[in-house]
Amino acid sequence: MTDISASAEHTPLVSIVLALGHDSDYLAAALQGVRDQTFQDWELLVVDNGAAHPERVEALIEDDARMSMMTIEHSATAGLARNIGVERTSGALITFLDDDDIWMPERLAVHVAQHAESPSAPASFSGYRHIDATGAAFGTDWRSRQTPASEILRGTAPTPLGPTLMIRRDQFLAIGGHSPEIPILVDFELGLRLALRGDFIYIDDLLVRYRRHSSNMTSMAPDNVRLRRLAMEDMIDRQRWAARGRGDSEVAGYFAERLRRYRRSESRIAGADAPRQLRRGRIGDALRSSAWGLRRAPLEFLSGVTGTVTARARRGQ
Fold it and tell me: Which of 146, 165, 197, 221: disulfide with 122, CB 3.0–4.6 Å?
């Protein structure tokens, strides 16, 4: 197991990898959040994966010797960019920073302390607060709870959000890092495979400000919703299949349960959405949502339809 104590020939304890696939109006704030950390034994590598003006990024980091930048092919996925970044860094603990998020000053210190107390944990994660383009808080804060990894695998506890994770390097390498071929939901898929390595540490504090804005809001366009549903199904089912292939019937059962839960939940959502699509004249989208939900969980789909129609009737619309 990797030692996370300081060595004589100093290597930063924490490696921060920031994969940047575009120009960002928020990058300066994200980098300042790192500089403001109470824990200062870190290195940060920006992996330029498509910034139109990399010289602007270089200008933001040139005065800090702990920050560096490299450029790779722009067609690389975020997962591949992060894997390359991990290969070029050396800290025993790894964390990933998105260009538009902000860390609370104590974030690294709290995670490092927790890993020192629980050296067998593959990763730690925390709660987070939503902020808008201006940095103002909105919506409901996200929190979880300390649970066995089996609950994450089964879907009875949430899978941690990628930007809140700190991961032991040896554990990240043991699972092969991010799956480089995946274009979406890469953090979710990584979280599932990390949970196979053991229980995570949950830190019940809002250590990340997770920014939502027009450029990063998950598209709710019907085509994108369907794509995400299919991708999520495939990721869960692939893990179920892999567990069965290695003879781990218990874990295969966890993923089978999670797949059932996911299909029921999404079928109810599809059912609630189908009448709305019909009212907007999107007949094709309504039919595709209906076909998806009816094939997966027909009772839940019909429950969603009924709920939407009933609510509309009560409003007299």
Answer: 197
Distance CA 164, CA 208 (A): 7
Q: Is 278 exposed, middle or buried (0-12, 13-18, 19+ CB in 10 A)?
A: middle
Sequence-distant (≥ 6) Cβ neighbours of residue 41 within 8 angstroms: 6, 12, 13, 14
Question: Residue 153: pLDDT above 70?
Answer: yes
Q: What is the pLDDT of residues 131-148, one digit of tens each?
A: 998 889 999 999 999 999
pLDDT at 215: 59
235 backbone φψ class: left, alpha, beta (φ>0; ψ -120 to 50): alpha
Residue 184: both structure tokens together: 């979406």
Taking the C-alpha atoms of residue 205 and residue 129, their distance in angstroms, rounded to an integer, is 10
Half-sphere exposure at residue 51, Cβ-oriented, CA atoms within 13 angstroms? 22
Question: pLDDT band at 217, cuts 50/70/90?
Answer: very low
Q: How far apart are CA 49 and CA 44, in angstroms?
A: 15
Pairing of β 166-168 and β 123-131: antiparallel
Measured distance CA(187)–CA(308) in Å, rounded: 32
